[in-house]
Amino acid sequence: MGTSLIQKIVKNEAMKQDPPEIYGWRVYALACSACFGGLIFGIDTGVIGGVLRMREFRDLYNLNNMSNLERANLGANIVSTLQAGCFVGALLAAQAADRFGRRPVLIWAAGGISVIGVILQAAASGQLAAMYVGRFVSGFGTGFASMVNPLYVAENAPRAIRGGLTGIYQLFIVMGIFLAYWINYGCVQNVSGTAIYMIPLVIQGAPPLLLMISMFLCNESPRHLAKQDKWEEALSVLSSIRSLPPDHPYVAAEFADIRAAIEEENAILDGANWMSLQKEMWLVPSNRKRAIISILLMFFQQMTGTNAINYYAPQIFATLGVEGTENELFATGIYGLVKLIAVLVFLIFVADSLGRRKSLIWTGIGQGLTMLYVGIFIVVAKPGEQEGSQVSAAGYVALICVFLFACMFQFGWGPCCWIYVSEIATTRLRATNVSYAAATQWLFNFVISRAVPPMLETMGSGGFGTYIFFCSWCFLMAAFVWFFIPETKGLSLEAMNELFGFHEDAKHKRADLENSSVNVETKGSVAQIEESESPAKI
Question: Which stretches make up the Major facilitator superfamily (MFS) profile domain (predicted)?
Answer without folding.
Answer: 30-489
